[in-house]
Amino acid sequence: MTTALQIITRAMQKSGILTKSESPAADESSDALDALNDILSSWSNDSLCIYARVTESFTLSGGTASYTIGTSQTFNTVRPIFIAEAHIRQSTTDYPVEVISDEIYQGITDKAISRGIPFWLNYTNAFPAATINLYPIPSSALTLYITSEKELTQFSTLATVVSLPPGWKKALIDALAVELSPEYGQQITPAMVAAAKESKGSIMRAVLKTRGMDALPTGNIGRFNIYRGY
């Protein structure tokens, strides 16, 4: 268990902004809290920094193809950054739903087709409210399950007590030390940069062990060649 203030204090001491016996002033703590939350917000865009995916269920309406998703939207939940898997449950049977790109969805010539259970899902990823488009249109009330990645929870106050996965406290301290150093005229040493890269890499490797091949980036793999591979 740790607090934002403990992470901030340790980061400022590690970077040489504070001595071992000093504590940050109120305005320094406030600025550092913003920087810490900025780091979490930035890491939220990296799938290998999302240590837990969330599975949720939503009720579909017969004849409705599109649903907004986000806080206070039709699907009222924290807006997903990425949808990893989807399926529809009817009675006790699950039917897989493939997540398709905007290009594939826009290429569907007749989006008004209604044919029982959808087999494609398109996620627009808009902000602050995104949209889920289903094809074909569900013909009755069904239950949609999605497994997604959400933005990392930020520290609301300096005294917020959180339980972090193994390695996360050190990764945040190392990253924050590098982030704050220039603001206080402290030199960013190669050792600090190496420590930040190593500690972040450690938590990413832990996620990769549980994800397998689905965590690897696929967008830039390219075409397959029998002589050279991908």
Brief rundown of the structure:
By secondary structure, this protein is α+β, with helices and mostly antiparallel strands.
Question: How many angstroms separate the termini?
Answer: 44 Å
Which sequence of SSEs, written as H and E, runs from N to C? EHHEEEEEHEEEEHH
Largest sheet: 8 strands, mixed
Count of helices? 5
Derived from helix and strand composition plus strand pairing, the structural class reads alpha+beta
Give the number of DSSP strands: 10
What is the overall silhouette?
Answer: elongated
Fraction in beta strands: 15-25%
- What would the average pLDDT be, to the nearest integer? 92
Q: Measured on Cα atoms, how large is the radius of gyration?
A: 22 Å
Low-pLDDT segments: 217-230
Tell me the strand order in the biggest sheet. 2-9-5-6-7-8-3-4
What is the helix fraction of residues, given as a range? 25-40%
How is this fold's topology laid out?
Elements: E1 2-3, H1 4-14, H2 26-43, E2 54-59, E3 66-70, E4 75-76, E5 80-90, E6 93-100, H3 102-106, E7 120-123, E8 130-135, E9 143-150, E10 161-162, H4 168-180, H5 190-211
Parallel strand pairs: 3-4, 6-7
Antiparallel strand pairs: 1-10, 2-9, 3-8, 5-6, 5-9, 7-8
Give an account of the 3D structure:
The protein has 230 residues and is of the alpha+beta class. The protein is built from five helices and ten strands; from the N terminus they run E-H-H-E-E-E-E-E-H-E-E-E-E-H-H. An eight-stranded mixed sheet has the order 2-9-5-6-7-8-3-4. Strands 1-10 form a two-stranded antiparallel sheet. The longest helix has 22 residues, at 190-211. The two termini are 44 Å apart.
